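seq:
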Amino acid sequence: MTDALIIQIISLMFCAMGLGIFVNPAFYKKIISDLVENESTAYLSAMITLVIGFFIISLRSSFTFSNLSIISIIGWIALIKGLLMISFPRPCLRIVKFFSKRKGFIMFGGTVILILGFVFMYMGVLLL
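struct:
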């Protein structure tokens, strides 16, 4: 799997999530609420995040002084997030609950995710 393909998959995910948050923020608030209230869902989410992080790191683990280091950083963030959610689920879910109750949190997160999605999309096009 090439760097271009990895960054394009990440950009597609981020753009879809960002647009989804803008189109239907109530749906994403419900997802976060369900995640916090249902430990099985949180555990499954943590396992998937861990696997995705490991997958990205196994394909691209080197840090170079280029824009492509973002791929490795995203992989490490996902891996660490998955490990923390599995190892310390209650404190992690308390943090999620705390931020999800803040007014404007969902829309701010959606904005950041959408901007990152477009940046990654641009990077993926440049790599072709």
